[in-house]
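Appendix B.2, paired examples.
Example (i):
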Amino acid sequence: MRIAIVNDMPLAVEALRRALAFEPAHQVVWVASDGEEAVRLCAENTPDLILMDLIMPVMDGVEATRRIMAESPCAIVIVTIDREQNVHRVFEAMGFGALDVVDTPVLGGSNPKEASAPLLRKILNVGWLMGQSEKRVTPVSAQPRVPGGRGGLVAIGSSAGGPAALETLLKGLPRNFGAAIVLVQHVDQVFAAGMAEWLSTSCGLDVRLARDGETPQVGTVLLAGTNHHIRLLKNGTLAYTAEPVNEIYRPSIDVFFESVAQYWSGDAVGVLLTGMGRDGAQGLKSMRQQGFLTIAQDQHSSSVYGMPKAAAAIDAAVEIRPLDKIAPRLLEKFAK
């Protein structure tokens, strides 16, 4: 993979170079010391992937991500040395289309290959996303549903560009919204708690990580919070599971949507937002086949028109809507 590094710290650049050297297929095509230089170099020589720092002189990583995704789009992974201090910047960059975030590898440890493993795994995931073959189709057996049996549920899936899209959508919903909400966002578990806190603060809703064994409740927005998948069980509770182990998206939107199609006995809406790849498309179709309303974000308002496009291509969405029109539709659906 052709990889660019954007970082103003020589030690961080060297750590990234050493980490990438453990995988001979990776080639560093250029290095930029600030965001402005990165924007220029990306336009001249667009790489497969950029490893983007956040705090830099001249232009920071957030603005550089925004400019690159608008002018010379490519895959971007945020690499930061202090995620707790930069959590808001991380999600702002992801809102502009950054795919994921990972800690900067540490030089001088006893096992440098082990220290490089999280970064190399992220890069492997990005490679899968960019070159992924058609996803498997998991048949969902029809289950009798009792109208209103468990109340209302909104199941939302998002990936690249998702944090900002989720912020916009949730800001359009009141605190007394008449349905439970469960979010599945492609984000590493070390950043999930920060994302829930960020959404809760910015949207004014009660957003927290979903707990194993709890039931979705009206008035609470639950975010999948581990690198395992989250499922709805037959008894209406949520559970984290490592299966299916071969699913490259963790947590997988398809896995959650398909469990909702199979087991939710009340009314439900599936919403698939911006993101790269195809995750969520088949699960959204499964929900549609069970008679649920399904909504996909439109191309114009998507930061990355991948997952919603895949859903539209297989006729999984009952409605395709601009981002700012999704919350009003949910309010109409679950009006108190």
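Example (ii):
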Amino acid sequence: MSATPKRPRLGLAAWTAALLVGTAAGSGLYLFSYAEGLSYLSDDPRACVNCHVMREHLDGWQQSAHHAHAVCNDCHVPHDPLGKYLAKAEHGWRHSKAFTLNDFAEPIRITPEDLDIVRDNCVRCHGEMVSGLAPAAHGDGARVDCIQCHSGVAHGPLR
């Protein structure tokens, strides 16, 4: 008769590590669920108003001409799949951190990097209409800035 080998017992360090990893994973899953994290992977504009500071923007968009043709992601994220989800991840991280730490401006303001995405998407959709407005037409090589004159088009008048 052969003796069955003894299984190694987990030490205190292994139990502590398992408890910490389990707690972090459980907390992360709970917070992701509580914050309706999956909704941000969709193109549904209602995901944007999970945060109360976006309500005015959604209301303005619903009354704008863009409502019939574009949703938030059409303007606010790149259209290549990798760029889209990288931008969504960066936005999610930045927004969740700002709201958790109560460190955000009201009314919410767009970052310069995100404004570049919006400008690129304006030209992507309205390329034929603005093709005569090449950067060289400004004389200084500056890019076309649709938002400068049309800031209220997609969201209606903002404060």
